[in-house]
Specification:
With 254 residues, the protein is an alpha/beta fold. The protein has ten helices and eleven strands. It has one domain: Aldolase class I (TIM Barrel, Alpha-Beta Barrel).
C-alpha cells in the first residue's frame, strides 16, 4: 500500500490486507481499494489481493484500477468486491458505464474522477508585468486518467453530469491539487460537482484535520468523505473522526 502527495512521491504505507483488518475493527463505513498503476501499466487489478482483503473484512468494499470491460467488473465482483470503481475505461468508453449499470445494477458502479484545477494562460499586458504569459487559477477542473498521468481536456463538472446520466450509482471525486496535502478538501470542486447531480458524491483528497471532514460534509453536499494518509499513519482513528462529527451534529453512524 502506498500514499503520495498530489499523486506523486509515493511511499510505503503498509500491508493492505493487515491495514484493511484494522479499518474493519475500527468500523469504517466502507473500504476503497484502488490499484493506482494498473491502467497505466496496462494490466488488470490484483484479483488475488482483492480476494484476500474481501475474506478479512465485513464492510462494503469498493475496488478500482485496471478495469477495461464487463468481464473485469464481473471478475472483481466475484472476487468479493461490493462495488467497482472505473475511471480510465469510463473516459475511453463511456458506454461501459451504462452497460455495467444494466448488467450489475447502478448501486455497484462507481465512476472515479481525478480532477485538477485548470490554470488559464493570460497575456501579461497589465502594468507592472513583464511581457509574456502568466497563469491564473480558473473556476474549472480538468479530468485526468491513468492514475493522474494523462490529461483529457474533459471538464470535470460536465463529466460528472454525463456519468450520472449514463447510470453511475456514485462518483468518487478526487482533487489532484489537494491529494495528500492534508490542507483540507477542495470545497469549491466538490460543491460545484454536487450541485449538478443527484447521485452520491464521495469527496477525496486533502483530509488532515477533524475540521476538514466537517467542512466538506456540511458545506458542499458531499454524501461521504474518503481519507487515507491520516488513517494509514495513525494520526487519527476512524472512531475519533466519527465522534467529532457526532458532536458537531453531523448525521453519522457510530
Amino acid at each position: 500500500m502506498v500514499k503520495g502527495v498530489k499523486f506523486l512521491g509515493l511511499r510505503d504505507a503498509g500491508d493492505p490486507v493487515e491495514i484493511a483488518k484494522v479499518y474493519d475493527r475500527q468500523e469504517a463505513d466502507e473500504l476503497v481499494f484502488l490499484d493506482i498503476t494498473a491502467s497505466f501499466e496496462n494490466r488488470k487489478t490484483l484479483i488475488g489481493l482483492v480476494e484476500q482483503i474481501a475474506k478479512n473484512i465485513f464492510m462494503p468494499f469498493t475496488v478500482g484500477g485496471g478495469i477495461r470491460d464487463i468481464d473485469d467488473i464481473r471478475d472483481l465482483l466475484n472476487a468479493g468486491a461490493d462495488k467497482v470503481s472505473i475511471n480510465t475505461a469510463a473516459v475511453k468508453c463511456p458506454d461501459l458505464i451504462s452497460e455495467a449499470s444494466r448488467k450489475f445494477g447502478s448501486q455497484c458502479i462507481v465512476v472515479a474522477i481525478d480532477a485538477k484545477l485548470v490554470q488559464s494562460k493570460v497575456p501579461s499586458t497589465l502594468p507592472g508585468r513583464q511581457a509574456g504569459e502568466y497563469r491564473v487559477p480558473s473556476t474549472s477542473w480538468e479530468v485526468y486518467i491513468n492514475g493522474g498521468r494523462t490529461p483529457t481536456d474533459l471538464d470535470a463538472v460536465e463529466w460528472v453530469k454525463k456519468v450520472a446520466g449514463l447510470g453511475a450509482g456514485e462518483v468518487l471525486l478526487t482533487s489532484m491539487d489537494y491529494d495528500g496535502t492534508k490542507d483540507g478538501y477542495d470545497l469549491a470542486l466538490t460543491k460545484a460537482t454536487c450541485e449538478e447531480v443527484n447521485i452520491p458524491v464521495i469527496a477525496s483528497g486533502g483530509a488532515g484535520k477533524l475540521e476538514h471532514f466537517y467542512d466538506v460534509l456540511t458545506k458542499t453536499g458531499a454524501a461521504a468523505s474518503l481519507a487515507a494518509s491520516i488513517f494509514h499513519y495513525g494520526e487519527y482513528t476512524i472512531k475519533q473522526v466519527k465522534e467529532y462529527l457526532k458532536e458537531k451534529r453531523v448525521a453519522i453512524r457510530l
